[in-house]
Amino acid sequence: MVMTSAERQRKRRERIAREQKAMPDEAAPYIRRPFSEFFWLHDGEHIEGWQSAEEMCAYAGIELPWFRTEDWPEFDTYDLSSADIENRGSISKAELLVGALHEALDVLTQKINAFKREEIEARIKELEESDLSDPSEKKRALREIVRLNKIKDQLGKRVRLEHPVTEVKG
After folding, report:
1. Which of 75, 90, 101, 105 could make an S-S bridge to 36, C-beta 3.0–4.6 Å?
2. Per-residue pLDDT of the chain (170 residues; tens, 9 = 90+)
């Protein structure tokens, strides 16, 4: 089967992303001090921001690490070296956490969005199938359908979250 131009581009982008993911971080050889030292050296906004993030995650039942030391016992427990993950202490742990949070964010936002869209569609269908013989009820139902379609349109949009680059590859 012949691929369209868009499909070829998508495959190409996926291949490049896989290749770049396999590349080492170009900044790694220049890192000399432990990330845990840096993490605690900068009091104020960084730590306060981390405390706020930790608190919000705790509300959702997630415990964030504090990077107090360079120890990473989970590295051996889960045999992460077999997944081509390098143990450079707390910086590797932090980078893995960023990747895990990105993936979790992507999956969770897709699930929430699909759920809400499905529920909105169900309410629209209920309104369309309801008894609309009364003119005032029909008018109310049509207004509600318009409102629900606007909500559905908003749920069809994408947002971009920007953050600093944490790895330099290729």
Report:
1. 90
2. 788 998 999 898 888 877 777 788 889 899 999 998 888 776 555 666 788 888 999 999 999 888 888 989 998 889 888 888 889 999 999 999 999 999 999 999 999 999 999 999 999 999 999 998 999 999 999 999 999 999 999 999 999 988 888 888 87
| Backbone φ, ψ for residue 91 (5° rounding) | -65, -40
Q: 0.85 cut: is pTM over it? A: no
166 belongs to a structural domain = no
- Give a yes or no: residue 77 inside a domain: yes
The answer to whether residues 128 and 145 touch, using CB atoms and an 8 Å cutoff, is yes
What six digits make up the tokens of 167? 């790895």
Rounded CA gap, 75 and 71, in Å?
9
Total of domains in the chain: 1
Count of all residues that appear for the chain in the document: 170
Residue 33 lies in a domain: yes
Q: Per the domain annotation, does 20 fall within a domain?
A: yes
Residue range of the domain that includes 82: 5-156
8 Å CB contact between 20 and 170 = yes
- Alpha-carbon distance 11 to 19, whole Å? 12
